Amino acid sequence: MLFERPMVFVDLETTGANAESDRITEIGIVEIDGDTIHEWSTLVNPGVTIPKFIQNLTGISDEMVANAPSFEAVAQETLKRLTGRLFVAHNARFDYGFLRNEFKRLGIKFSATALCTVKLSRKLFPQHHKHNLDAVIQRHNLPIDSRHRALADVKALMFFMRHLNDSLPLESVTEAINSIIQRPALPAHLDPAVLDDLPESCGVYMFYGTNDQLLYINKSSNIRKSIYSFFSKGIRHSNEAALAQQLQQIAHIETVSELGALLTETRLMKEHQHLHTTRTAKRNDLCTWQMEESDNGTLIPKLKYSRDLDFGGIKNLYGLFPNGKVATKALRSLADAHLLCHNLLGLETQPMGKPCKAFHSKNCLGACIGVEPIASHNARLKAALFKSQVQAWPFNGLIGVKEIAPLGARIDIHLIENWCYLGTIANINELDMQSIKHCKASFDIDVYKALSKQIGSGKLDIVYLDKITAN
User: How many CB atoms lie within 10 A of CB 285?
Assistant: First the structure.
């Protein structure tokens, strides 16, 4: 029977979606010990105004919580009901995160093993697409009187677990639960509590050693999953073993999207280049072909490196390559595919008027010896390079790429100019032009790849800041 283990079903109503800045307005708890069930709920005065759309969603108004106890007043009662039980909630990281933050503000350390019924539903019923509480209630015909009130929602979770207990093999349900609540084996010197606050959202995570020495940086679409995976897969390389031995602390930075995670990682990489010397070296070798016109009008590709040239502000650049060797190989392949003259492209150094080797092998139409007009060769070269042209920065100057998290829990405005990432702010009032002007950011291929296609698609919320920077 599933309920042999003490469980506590939890649902909260809150003023918003951010566990750090928003507050709890209602707590609903159902405790189960075998056949014994205890229900408890209370409104909570959050100490802040409840947004109107949250009031409309939950039915909890400012007037209703005006005379309700604060969380501090119900903290000990809440803690008593949670302690020593499997913490069960729908989207458990939300409820668990809010309670941990509320307890933390009071100097109370709270930790529990959490079971998310969203994940449980996905594991047991993978054929279904929707696993929100409304979908679960409807799919399994769970008895419920109302929605978006804490005790009513938490009862629905209890009924869901009863349904699983009655309708599915116990072994299947138990296996699914254990796979969800299983925690990775951490190094013995690391406090397991470091895993409790990890979000299941985009961002960047960092590993620190003694004296706050930064050891490792990585971006992720799911911070919690990535860190769990790091420790669950086992140590496979000597450098991972050394990292695990030195690790003393784990930190993370949440972002609205994977774009924000990439940009944040880019910033941190540049600030801590000693951690990624190989990647830094590769960035310094980044190169492209720039078309230059000779005295007789011949277009000649010249290899340019990002360390010497700002790729973002120039229009006649073609291809982005990790080093000169790769760039030359790509140009040679292009020439062979389009019967272009190797000599005019600088791939050979035959004397003027002499045919290139490609002409002898019938891979050149003879521009090197005047058989093909230079204008024709130029036109074919441009056509061959067209798809690989590096997109020049399409704005007059600085822009912001605005991202808003669900329910407005977070706003990020990423500052970009000439494919250079300059930082992230929460609102325009934070824009510090003096700092921007002195920023030494340079063209970043990762930023370019992430944004170049999206900018023309209309999918990004662009904030035009060039007028602000001109003032």
Answer: 17
The model carries a pTM of: 0.71
| pLDDT tens digits, one per residue of 255-293 | 999 999 999 998 888 788 766 544 544 566 899 999 999
Summarised one tens digit per residue, pLDDT across range 302-316 is 999 988 888 888 888
Structure tokens belonging to residue 58: 């939950």
Amino acid at 205: Y
Q: Are the C-beta atoms of 124 and 178 separated by less than 8 Å?
A: no
Read off the pLDDT of residues 206-262 as tens digits, 9 standing for 90 and up.
999 888 889 899 999 999 999 988 887 655 566 777 787 888 889 999 999 999 999
3-state secondary structure the chain: CHHHCCEEEEEEEECCCCCCCCCEEEEEEEEEECCEEEEEEEECECCCCCCHHHHHHHCCCHHHHCCCCEHHHHHHHHHHHHCCCEEEECCHHHHHHHHHHHHHHCCCCCCCCEEEHHHHHHHHCCCCCCCCHHHHHHHCCCCCCCCCCHHHHHHHHHHHHHHHHHHCCHHHHHHHHHHHHCCCCCCCCCCHHHHCCCCCCCEEEEEECHHHCEEEEEEECCHHHHHHHHHHCCCCCHHHHHHHHHCCEEEEEECCCHHHHHHHHHHHHHHCHHHHHHHHHHHHCCEEEEEEECCCCCEEEEEEECCCCCHHHCCCEEEEECCHHHHHHHHHHHHHHHCCCCCCCCCCCCCCCCCCHHHHCCCCCCHHHCCCCHHHHHHHHHHHHHHHECCCCCCCCCEEEEEECHHHCCEEEEEEECCEEEEEECCHHHCCHHHHHCCCCCCCHHHHHHHHHHHCCCCCEEEECHHHHHC
The encoded tokens of residue 249 equal 């602390």
Cα–Cα distance for residue pair 263/249, rounded to 1 Å: 23
Domains along the sequence of the chain with CATH: 2-181 (3.30.420.10), 200-280 (3.40.1440.10), 284-388 (no CATH), 399-470 (no CATH)
Burial (0-12, 13-18, 19+ Cβ within 10 Å), 111 = middle
